[in-house]
Automatic annotation (TrEMBL):
<dbReference type="InterPro" id="IPR011041">
    <property type="entry name" value="Quinoprot_gluc/sorb_DH_b-prop"/>
</dbReference>
<feature type="compositionally biased region" description="Low complexity">
    <location>
        <begin position="33"/>
        <end position="63"/>
    </location>
</feature>
<feature type="region of interest" description="Disordered">
    <location>
        <begin position="33"/>
        <end position="75"/>
    </location>
</feature>
<protein>
    <submittedName>
        <fullName>PQQ-dependent sugar dehydrogenase</fullName>
    </submittedName>
</protein>
<dbReference type="InterPro" id="IPR011042">
    <property type="entry name" value="6-blade_b-propeller_TolB-like"/>
</dbReference>
<dbReference type="Pfam" id="PF07995">
    <property type="entry name" value="GSDH"/>
</dbReference>
<feature type="domain" description="Glucose/Sorbosone dehydrogenase">
    <location>
        <begin position="85"/>
        <end position="385"/>
    </location>
</feature>
<dbReference type="InterPro" id="IPR012938">
    <property type="entry name" value="Glc/Sorbosone_DH"/>
</dbReference>
Length: 401
């Protein structure tokens, strides 16, 4: 379902990088003189085809038509990559196939060998104050990680939720490879519940963060508050150029608790959101739009609110992480204990969502694209709300279509 907000004019998508001088020149013509590094948000023009490298494994060739995925897909568990993780939350794939995973309660980042599953502690993040749903949450690699070795992390401190960055020095001993954290953004409301926590760099090389309203529902509609929002920042933590509200990091508002962020091949941003007692949501995010909470949960007759792409009862989903692959959004369910496939045509569902792995691996926290139709999937049975089995928590490799 699409939002009922009135259509608005949007700046055309601006690419951060050009692969060749010829493409750069063509891009300048197509964007009528827009700067190639003005930070314009992706998704502003749904008809645009990206020419750069998007933050998704399913980037389409330039000029290709958007493919509608088949109504029915499939999921195959290829293997268990590793076991014995403690309260895993965030996941960041490395270029060599290894994985970085954060522990919410232990405040550590661990490197998992992508072939053998061997675990090596990278280091502990200082200043984390785990409690309730808070702790060390999402992690993301700098767009220039190959040269700057920066890991970004979203965590709950004693006073707020904040985002820091740290140098990953692989030349140091295990457990001592994280440099001192540099706080790039602070002041996000914290609580025992609804701390948000997902961070990701978008195709525009800007840093996006999903936040929660920390149990104070009034924060979601307050555009001056950072709670119940999707934020868009520069890598240095400043409000990103092109944001919808002047001098503000707020990108969209009216959210309850956002823990999933992903872009499709057309650079459109999607976000998953926990409902309260009735409806969980998958939303297509538009800059400046109001997603309704607490006045609306799920679809609404109020034309001022952007309706979800799809909604689920809370016992079927309770969604955390999402990824885009093979023309669909894949959504990890905690209480629902299943992986949802939502096939898309544009920002609408092209067929009914499908559920996979229902009850097989318990609570599912994070899903990330691995390329070639593969996904990484992280379980969350050691978070105090699951029923752990031998080997929990674990990372799975999936082949999907």
């Amino acid at each position: 379902m699409t939002g009922r907000t009135p259509p608005r004019r949007r700046d055309e998508i601006v690419q951060r990088r050009a692969v060749t001088a010829v493409l750069a020149a063509a891009a300048l013509l197509l964007t009528a003189g827009c700067s190639s590094d003005d930070g314009a948000p992706p998704g502003a023009d749904d008809s645009a085809s990206p020419t750069g490298t998007a933050a998704t494994s399913s980037a389409s060739p330039e000029g290709s038509a958007e493919r509608t995925p088949p109504a029915k897909g499939s999921v195959k568990v290829v293997r268990t990559v590793t076991t014995g993780l403690s309260s895993p939350w965030g996941l960041a794939p490395l270029a060599d196939g290894d994985l970085l995973v954060s522990s919410r309660d232990e405040a550590t980042i661990t490197r998992v060998d992508g072939r053998t599953g061997e675990k090596t502690e990278v280091g502990e993040v200082p200043g984390v104050s785990p409690s309730g749903e808070g702790g060390l949450l999402g992690i993301a690699l700098s767009p220039d990680y190959a040269s700057d070795r920066m890991i970004y992390a979203y965590f709950t401190s004693a006073s707020d939720n904040r985002i820091v960055r740290m140098v990953h020095d692989e030349g140091k001993p295990a457990g001592e490879q994280l440099g001192a954290p540099d706080t790039v953004f602070r002041g996000i409301p914290k609580g025992e519940i609804h701390n948000g926590g997902r961070i990701a760099f978008g195709p525009d090389r800007m840093l996006y963060a999903g936040t929660g309203e920390s149990g104070d529902t009034g924060l979601s509609q307050d555009k001056e508050s950072l709670g119940g929002k999707i934020l868009r920042l520069t890598p240095e933590g400043e409000p990103a150029p092109g944001n919808p509200f002047p001098d503000s990091a707020v990108y969209s508002y009216g959210h309850r608790n956002v823990q999933g962020l992903a872009w499709d091949r057309k650079q459109r941003l999607f976000a998953s959101e926990f409902g309260q007692n009735t409806w969980d949501e998958l939303n297509a995010i538009r800059p400046g739009d109001n997603y309704g909470w607490p006045e609306a949960e799920g679809e609404s007759d109020d034309g001022g609110f952007h309706d979800p792409v799809h909604q689920w009862s809370t016992d079927e989903a309770s969604p955390s992480g999402i990824a885009h692959a093979e023309g669909s959004v894949w959504m990890a369910g905690l209480r629902g204990e299943r992986l949802w496939r939502i096939p898309l045509k544009g920002t609408e569902t092209s067929a009914d969502p499908q559920a996979f792995l229902e009850g097989e691996y318990g609570r599912l926290r994070t899903v990330a694209a691995a390329g070639d139709g593969r996904l990484w999937l992280v379980t969350s049975n050691m978070d105090g709300r699951g029923n752990p089995k031998e080997g929990d928590d674990r990372i799975l490799e999936l082949q999907v279509s």
